[in-house]
């Protein structure tokens, strides 16, 4: 059996406009790399972190926390070292903590001969995600682990539905280089919502799921609307309204906040539109003094993988 694996743990977009805490999809071109190694000494150690300044203490690192939860339950007769090569900036809104939390449990599972299912890996990864956001949600973890579009039916017990990916769908992401902590972006949300808004939102979620099943890009366009969360969180993202207007004018099917922000995503039919959207995003933020990155990505239907 292998003693070491190197993995690619992808960035993800959670919420997908209307599906707060339940919908997500997986990106192709952005992600972290991690190396997980078996050791004769028992326990979980984080031995290397490159890219960003994150804690080495196992209990304070999301990758360490998810690995420990799995390790304590499985109690194997070996230990594991984790190296993290972080490309996804923490607090960027494209699933940085989820990539780490999913990566460690995926890697350990590979080294133990895959005793756990994707759903069990998600259960342990949720423990790491909880450290970062102070709440249990799996809408970034599920697409990282399963690939494609996912719907989190329930976190406890974990029940993830894999949704189809229409073949021509492309994502464009702008990541303004400011940090928004998920816990902060959750704290500003209202505890109650209007029934009228709830009806609009669940009609949109149902329509989005149907659109993915039927490759109905027109319905997808109509469904990519968030009337509950975006009105509050957009205040945290400079130039959001202007950005969204330009993105939709460029032909995107829809545009919204990626996870808890500050990244903003758009979905388009075909790579040409996705690239036009990237130009619009670039032109809006080029007029500001905020540094930013723009990515165009296929939807990654494979998810986390060995490299
Ligand atoms: N659904 C989560 C949120 C994703 O929007 O707060 C970020 O972790």
Chart the SSEs and their pairings.
Elements: E1 4-14, E2 23-39, E3 43-50, H1 62-74, E4 79-85, H2 96-111, H3 118-133, H4 141-146, E5 149-155, E6 158-163, E7 169-176, H5 182-187, H6 195-214, H7 217-223, H8 230-233, H9 240-249, E8 254-257, E9 264-269, H10 271-286, E10 292-298, E11 305-306
Parallel strand pairs: 3-4
Antiparallel strand pairs: 1-2, 1-11, 2-4, 2-5, 5-6, 7-9, 7-10, 8-9
The structure holds L-homoserine (HSE).
L-homoserine binds next to α5.
Q: Explain this structure to me?
A:
- The chain has ten helices and eleven strands.
- With 307 residues, it is of the alpha+beta class.
- It folds into two domains: 4-163, Ribosomal Protein S5, domain 2 (2-Layer Sandwich), CATH 3.30.230.10; 169-298, Alpha-Beta Plaits, CATH 3.30.70.890.
- Strands 1, 2, 3, 4, 5, 6 and 11 form a seven-stranded mixed beta sheet that branches. Strands 8-9-7-10 form a four-stranded antiparallel beta sheet, sandwiched between helices.
- The longest helix is centred in the middle third of the chain and has 20 residues, at 195-214.
- The model has no long low-confidence stretch (mean pLDDT 96).
- The site of L-homoserine has 13 residues, from α5.
- L-homoserine binds at residues 14-15, 20-21, 133, 137, 139-140, 182, 185-186, 259-260.
Quick structural gist:
The chain has 307 residues and is α+β, with helices and mostly antiparallel strands. Helices cover 37% and strands 27% of the residues.
């Amino acid at each position: 059996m292998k003693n070491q694996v190197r993995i690619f743990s992808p960035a993800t977009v959670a919420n997908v406009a209307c599906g707060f805490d339940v919908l997500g999809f997986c990106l192709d071109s952005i992600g972290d790399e991690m190396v997980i190694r078996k050791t004769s000494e028992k326990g979980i150690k984080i031995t290397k972190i490159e890219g960003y300044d994150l804690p080495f203490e196992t209990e304070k690192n999301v990758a360490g926390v998810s690995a420990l939860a799995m390790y304590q339950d499985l109690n194997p007769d070996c230990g594991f070292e984790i190296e993290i090569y972080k490309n996804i900036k923490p607090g960027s809104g494209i699933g940085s903590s989820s990539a780490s939390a999913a990566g460690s449990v995926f890697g350990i599972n590979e080294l133990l001969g895959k005793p756990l299912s994707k759903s069990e890996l998600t259960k342990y990864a949720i423990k790491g995600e909880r450290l970062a956001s102070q709440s249990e949600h799996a809408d970034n973890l599920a697409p990282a682990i399963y690939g494609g579009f996912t719907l989190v039916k329930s976190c406890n017990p974990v029940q993830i539905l894999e949704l189809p990916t229409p073949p021509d769908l492309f994502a464009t992401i702008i990541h303004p280089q400011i940090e928004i902590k998920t816990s902060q972006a959750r704290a500003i949300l209202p505890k109650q919502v209007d029934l009228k808004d709830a009806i609009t939102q669940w009609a949109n979620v149902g329509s989005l799921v149907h659109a993915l099943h039927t490759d109905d890009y027109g319905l997808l366009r109509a469904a990519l609307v968030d009337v509950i969360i975006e009105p509050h969180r957009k205040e945290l993202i400079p130039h959001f309204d202007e950005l969204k207007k330009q993105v939709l004018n460029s032909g995107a099917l829809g545009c919204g906040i990626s996870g808890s922000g500050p990244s903003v995503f758009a979905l388009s039919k075909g790579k040409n539109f996705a690239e036009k959207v990237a130009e619009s995003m670039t032109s809006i933020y080029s007029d500001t003094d905020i540094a930013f990155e723009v990515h165009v990505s296929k939807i990654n239907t494979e998810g986390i993988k060995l490299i």
